[in-house]
Design a protein that fits this description.
With 230 residues, the protein is α/β, with parallel strands linked by helices. 36% of the residues lie in helices and 10% in strands.
Length: 230
Amino acid sequence: MTDTAIKLEDGWKQALASEFSSPYMESLKQFLQAEKQAGKVIFPRGAEYFRALDLTRLGEVKVVILGQDPYHGEGQAHGLCFSVQPGVKIPPSLVNIYKEMQADLGIAPARHGFLEHWARQGVLLLNSVLTVERSLAASHQGRGWEKFTDAVIARVNEQPSPAVFMLWGSYAQKKAAFVDQKKHLVLKAPHPSPLSAYNGFFGSRHFSKANEFLEAQGLQPIDWQLPAEV
């Protein structure tokens, strides 16, 4: 994975050096290369595998939102969980995130699903698995990405500055179960997918709770209002 790691933001690159030099990451690199040589299309493109880390530097993480896999449809994934590229239809889970944000903060839903505005302010939009084969959900699970993203979460957990962890659904809650709740604010709710959003995601008020915590810590709150145009 060294060739891809070179493109990684320096703070993360240094913090995760031991991961990149580990056997499991070499195995993952070989798997991805073999998949590409076999003619399989992988999302997102290689330069965006670590987009979440490039946009949200380690020492600047204020909020962590965990996803599971990248979107596997054409033109959707670009390295941030729940986010899609400009011009792509907003996925159902993100539609529900916007609904909750409107109920919580009075912010009208954006007409796009491009969330880089959040990432640039310190919202780490991290999927557990960072690649997927086109049209084949969960196709790269169990190949090593989960161990790598566990290390990412651990590095945030170790930072001196407190952060907010928004853990939506049982998968995210289990993955970040080790986070120090004495230092960080851990918010839990059901997943925002149409299958579970009405079971407690709606009404969770995670966006206002996150900002209240950040302000109480003397940190700048997140501007959740997305730009009208991207």
